[in-house]
């Protein structure tokens, strides 16, 4: 995609506050509008689209072998590559999101790429973001859980492996958020020699506990800020801290909710939340506007408008990879094949990062670290980032960026 000059970018639409605004937003979505919305976020990087400098960043469409299959990519590359450079870092977003969600983290990671003479990539999963919206059809029997999960995982991780080959990368450090964290682990299990490290930001599908405290409807809430400004931004995930987070989750989950019951029913029937939004026709942009302004209340007014515009475009695009979720996760975001039962096979450094107001159960990370260490892998850590929820990298970007860079540079023991 050719870089647009800043003056060529139209202003972001206001967050819809009336029916007429919803109508205007609905009719202006599409591939071109989606590209503009994404670039508006990326233009916050002073080196985006530049031809020279310590690092350069550009948008790519990486075509795969299957016709009309491609992965939308942002590449940030050092112009002074080091012969001893570490493997590049690859950012992988969560369910129904896109690479634009990492817009506040790319500057810090670009600094790391410049310092280490390497590259950073952000990639949209096949069927999500601005990657190809190809049909997702499950062939396995609904009763065969293993086959369903394996097939759904392969749709994503095999396309990532093909992307790696196209990009001529020997190894990668995967930084995955939520479902992107789940797929990062699945990829590392299937292609172990291609992964240098795993950094998992509030990963989905980790614990096995059927009574886990995850409550997906809390995604609609903005995490509260700490009343104690002296609280450290980052701390190890001690059992006491994990128990505090789970107690908060349990209290929220105990509240009666008709929305939760409807959500669980639609989930099992194979619907996606985005399909529900699309079915509301003209009210879709209004619903998205309410979500973006409420969930990302820590952003500036302009950042919120830009995020709304971006989320609107990728949400109203043709449904595709989003239909995988009911095959991988049962209602409540509990994996049908939990990662905690699979991670022991990993022999690479693995870092779990949760927010102190997360709705993902951090006990899964603790149990996974314990399992990995028992298998002989001592290069595993779990951390809590304060003043952050599930979108930990957006809620407290400074803390997460410093921790991620530290983990990227950490030498395995």
TrEMBL record:
<feature type="region of interest" description="Disordered">
    <location>
        <begin position="206"/>
        <end position="253"/>
    </location>
</feature>
<dbReference type="InterPro" id="IPR029058">
    <property type="entry name" value="AB_hydrolase_fold"/>
</dbReference>
<dbReference type="InterPro" id="IPR000073">
    <property type="entry name" value="AB_hydrolase_1"/>
</dbReference>
<comment type="similarity">
    <text>Belongs to the peptidase S33 family. ABHD4/ABHD5 subfamily.</text>
</comment>
<protein>
    <submittedName>
        <fullName>Alpha/beta-hydrolase</fullName>
    </submittedName>
</protein>
<feature type="domain" description="AB hydrolase-1">
    <location>
        <begin position="90"/>
        <end position="397"/>
    </location>
</feature>
<feature type="compositionally biased region" description="Low complexity">
    <location>
        <begin position="222"/>
        <end position="233"/>
    </location>
</feature>
<dbReference type="GO" id="GO:0005743">
    <property type="term" value="C:mitochondrial inner membrane"/>
</dbReference>
<dbReference type="Pfam" id="PF00561">
    <property type="entry name" value="Abhydrolase_1"/>
</dbReference>
<dbReference type="GO" id="GO:0035965">
    <property type="term" value="P:cardiolipin acyl-chain remodeling"/>
</dbReference>
<dbReference type="GO" id="GO:0004623">
    <property type="term" value="F:phospholipase A2 activity"/>
</dbReference>
<dbReference type="GO" id="GO:0055088">
    <property type="term" value="P:lipid homeostasis"/>
</dbReference>
<dbReference type="GO" id="GO:0006654">
    <property type="term" value="P:phosphatidic acid biosynthetic process"/>
</dbReference>
<dbReference type="GO" id="GO:0042171">
    <property type="term" value="F:lysophosphatidic acid acyltransferase activity"/>
</dbReference>
